[in-house]
Write a sequence for this structure.
């Protein structure tokens, strides 16, 4: 956890600094926006900005957005000026803390930002084997590939490996390769020099240099463009990187952990992933089984989440009833741990009485998780499937593929990532197909075409 305090309230923030450091955070100070931006560009980075409420927070937010720096802001002030606090929240701050700070409040904010609640909870033998292997290789510098379905806890396992490595006291830096556009990902990884491209207003240190001495997590690496993969391969092999627009190589000392929810061997055969890069990354493979294949973990995790969200919402901790436990263990959990966590969160809020019963184990739509599908619905689905099958006869594969892609994208309200997941293809492949269709004059549902994207981003 890295905390950057911005403003001239260092004297007032002595307590906050001490509390943060007691909670394992490293603390850096900056007098103003300019100095804060220099710190962030310079490779120290931050997981949280604690900013004087009387600084121009909106200006700081705009500067961060302009340089694609994503870090939450918490405003603080020595008075309980409600108007200033509200203005700070409207400007982009996530929270307001009055000074002098309450130790429990500071600790809670740091824990929320660091997401310390992402504990590695397991009981099933299938998961225990994965953890045992992770413990065996944690102390080495070997590159690690963590694979598994979405929601199984790949980043949690990556942090587990880091905290048990010789680099545990150094940074753990994560970058989602699927969430950053192609033309920005190279700069995010390797940094850039001032003037290297439009918008490069100053030198920016990339994630490789920011993680020096520690661990760099390349999340969903299968979505990285092949051209950038060659530069990544050089960085891993030679332990040097080239900033965009730079004139000399920069040495780095990091351990690489990569994750993927796709089969990279298939991606190699498809030509979307370099085989030599896969060999470099896949020194050790930690394959996390889906939740449905480790049933003993379901109840262990359910109990963990029940306590977590009871504490978070200030409600009594209720045990999970025997019937509810049977419902949980019999469900397939296609969304894995993430889906289970959301389900238990709902159940904590909906439960009445002394236990969490089956009536509180609900889907997002409010239906009971164990509610059987009605016969009319099944019959309707069967009839619809037959109609679709008849409609395919006489059409080319390319035509069917095109219609499927466009209709799926429309169903997802333009959200490319969700459409790619539903279709079972990479987002890169999806983008290439959409560019091809657009060149042919076909209308393409634009990104962000509806509330679905905003809801998904908050999930």
């Amino acid at each position: 956890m890295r905390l950057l305090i911005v403003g001239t309230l260092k004297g007032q923030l002595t307590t906050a600094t001490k509390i943060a450091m007691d909670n394992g955070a490293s603390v850096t100070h900056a007098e103003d926006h300019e100095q804060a931006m220099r710190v962030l560009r310079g490779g120290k980075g931050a997981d949280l900005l604690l900013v004087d409420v009387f600084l121009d927070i909106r200006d700081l937010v705009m500067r961060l957005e302009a340089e694609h720096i994503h870090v939450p802001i918490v405003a603080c002030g020595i008075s309980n000026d409600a108007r200033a606090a509200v203005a700070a929240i409207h400007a982009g701050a996530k929270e307001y803390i009055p000074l002098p700070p309450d130790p429990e409040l500071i600790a809670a904010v740091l824990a929320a930002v660091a997401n310390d609640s992402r504990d590695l909870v397991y009981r099933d033998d299938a998961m225990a084997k994965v953890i045992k292997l992770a413990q065996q290789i944690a102390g080495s510098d070997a590159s690690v590939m963590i694979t598994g379905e979405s929601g199984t806890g790949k980043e949690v396992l990556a942090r587990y490996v880091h905290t048990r490595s010789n680099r545990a006291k150094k940074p753990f830096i994560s970058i989602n390769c699927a969430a950053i556009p192609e033309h920005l990902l190279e700069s995010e990884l390797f940094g850039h020099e001032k003037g290297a491209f439009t918008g490069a207003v100053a030198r920016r240190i990339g994630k490789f240099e920011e993680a020096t001495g520690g661990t760099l997590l390349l999340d969903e690496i299968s979505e990285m463009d092949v051209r950038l993969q060659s530069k990544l391969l050089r960085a891993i092999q030679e332990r040097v990187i080239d900033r965009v627009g730079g004139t000399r190589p920069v040495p780095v000392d990091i351990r690489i952990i990569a994750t993927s929810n796709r089969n990279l061997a298939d991606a190699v055969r498809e030509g979307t992933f370099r085989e030599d890069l896969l060999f470099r990354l896949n020194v050790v493979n930690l394959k996390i089984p889906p939740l449905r294949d480790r049933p003993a973990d379901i109840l262990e995790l359910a109990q963990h989440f029940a306590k977590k969200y009871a504490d978070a919402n200030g409600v009594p901790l209720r045990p999970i009833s025997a019937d509810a436990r049977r419902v949980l263990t019999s469900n397939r959990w296609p969304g894995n741990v993430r889906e289970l966590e959301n389900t238990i969160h709902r159940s904590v809020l909906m439960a009445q009485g002394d236990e969490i019963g089956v009536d509180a184990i609900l889907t997002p739509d409010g239906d009971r998780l164990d509610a059987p599908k009605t016969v009319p619905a099944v019959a309707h689905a069967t009839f619809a499937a037959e109609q679709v099958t008849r409609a395919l006869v006489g059409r080319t594969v390319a035509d069917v593929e095109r219609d499927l892609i466009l209709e799926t994208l429309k169903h997802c309200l333009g959200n490319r990532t969700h459409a790619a997941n539903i279709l079972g293809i990479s987002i890169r492949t999806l983008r290439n197909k959409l560019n091809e269709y657009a060149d042919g004059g076909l209308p393409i549902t634009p990104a962000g075409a509806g509330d679905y994207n905003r809801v998904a981003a908050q999930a």
Observations:
- The mean pLDDT is 84.
- The CA atoms of residues 193 and 394 lie 56 Å apart.
- Residues 295-313 form the longest helix (19 residues).
- Residues 125-287 form a domain with the Rossmann fold fold (CATH 3.40.50.300).
